[in-house]
Amino acid sequence: MNKRISKMQNKINDISKFIIFACAFLVAAIAFPKGLLANGFIQTFAVRHGGSAITAEEVPILAKYDMFDCNRFQHDDVNGDTWSAIKRINPNTEIFLYQTSRVRDVDDELNIKFLNNIGRWNFSRGHSMGSLNSYNPELFLLDSNSRRIFTPAWPNSYLMDVGSNNYLNYWLEATIHDLANQPWTADGVFIDVVGPRRLSINKMPVKYKSDAEWFSAMQKFFNAITIGLKEKNLKLWGNTEYMITQFDVEAYISLDKSANPPYALMNEGAFAVGWGSEDVQFYPEAGWKRQVDLLSKIHNIKLLYSSHTDLEKGQSGTDNWGNPVNFWDVFWYAMGSYHLGKNTIDNNCYWEFHESSNKVNWYDEFDYIDLGSALGKYKITNYNGNNIYWREFGKGYVYVNPTIYNVSSISLPKKCKQLSHNNINKDPATLASINTINLKGHRAAFLLKETYDDDKPFPALAPPTNFRVNH
């Protein structure tokens, strides 16, 4: 009798699993009726390391992204194996597990499944070097007053000496134990808070007296843990926070050319950011241009750019220059900036618009916009002292105004149809033909050529009908 009941229970469990996964596919079919995955013109990634559980409804959305970062404990959210649920829809989605280079003093009681750092403050968890606080105090970074450095924005978190061989070994042993050969093992590790400048860690460590010294230590850390993780079939995705200076550019290029570069690097503050008291901050043209130009200078690393705003969809506000702006203005400006510089030869540039770490959104723009192959690099046309940047693609153009000034009557190379968030899923034949455009400050325009390829009319836009394959 017990065996019969056990067999019946197993059958019920199998049926339950089938129903859950079938529902995931059904949600995908409803949400994306003409194709599960995007057309590939915009290479995408997502960050989803908020504390809320991943739902079955989110699975088909996450599967549309090329890469995404999440917490290890979210592995169990969907039928006990979220990763498998995602990869059943798109085997090419790469999943990375969140980890930080800092150490917290309040995590000793947590199971390793719920850590987001290496833990081991006073509890070694079997580490061969013992706990950090009790046995390895020399691995903590100190300020000029010989105090351990922590940041108020990261409660109870302390900075470690990433240039120390002992800390490299300590971090690797702990991370491999916690993230490799575990039920929640994924494609790689996302490591947070490792910027190229001392300023990125908010307080100045006395051991590193210049940005150059700090970056040398950080590059050593990246190269070493890349090798160590690769031996366990784990890839490294590093978050270098934001880049805006020439030093940042040179640091990225140096990492890209190093013997063992990380798999991916993320610029957390690309083109437009929600930091500060304003609804959005736009960088001055010089800093913005460095971010655009860097996209074409990186060849060995996947370069990930994250843009954001404090505005929500449908909201309007004010930027850091005192000008009115709405959510979609910011979105399209950042998206246009990315397309000006993206490396279409190595196909290693990815972009996200980050709204929340607790939820991942998908945008119609990712499904419908496809301007074809880039026809060379961007060009600059000056209008009364204001630079307008534009790039031609096989099926259209991208124009961006990174200045604070509005520019009118920008001449287009040929007749076009201007796309917007409200018309991207419409038949282009129904859109007005134009020869010129107006661009306000910090705005972008996506344009479809009225004719292309020996003057053949551009066909109606439609979502894809096949899976998207990662590059």
Briefly summarize what is shown.
This protein is α/β, with parallel strands linked by helices. The chain has 2 domains: 331 residues, TIM Barrel; 79 residues, Immunoglobulin-like (Sandwich), CATH 2.60.40.
Please provide a written account of the structure.
The protein is of the alpha/beta class and 471 residues long. It folds into 2 domains: 38-368, TIM Barrel; 379-457, Immunoglobulin-like. It contains 10 helices and 22 strands. The protein has helices at 2-31, 59-62, 82-89, 132-135, 165-179, 211-230, 246-257, 285-294, 327-341, 364-368, and strands spanning 45-48, 67-70, 94-100, 103-104, 157-158, 188-192, 235-239, 264-267, 272-273, 281-282, 302-307, 316-318, 324-326, 349-353, 379-383, 386-393, 396-401, 407-419, 434-439, 443-449, 451-452, 456-457. The strands form 6 sheets. The protein has an 8-stranded parallel sheet with strand order 1-2-3-6-7-8-11-14. A 6-stranded antiparallel sheet has the order 15-16-17-20-18-19. α5 (165-179) packs parallel to α6 (211-230).
Offer a few descriptive terms.
alpha/beta; TIM Barrel; Immunoglobulin-like; 2 domains; 26% helix; globular; disordered N terminus; disordered C terminus
Describe the biggest sheet? Answer: 8 strands, parallel
Name the quaternary structure.
Answer: single chain
Helix content: 25-40%
Could you give the order of strands across the largest sheet? Answer: 1-2-3-6-7-8-11-14
Strands, count:
22
Mean pLDDT: 88
What is the CATH level 1 assignment of the largest domain?
Answer: Alpha Beta
Helix/sheet category: alpha/beta
- CATH-level-4 superfamily name of the largest domain: Aldolase class I
CATH topology of the largest domain: TIM Barrel
| Intertermini distance | 54 Å
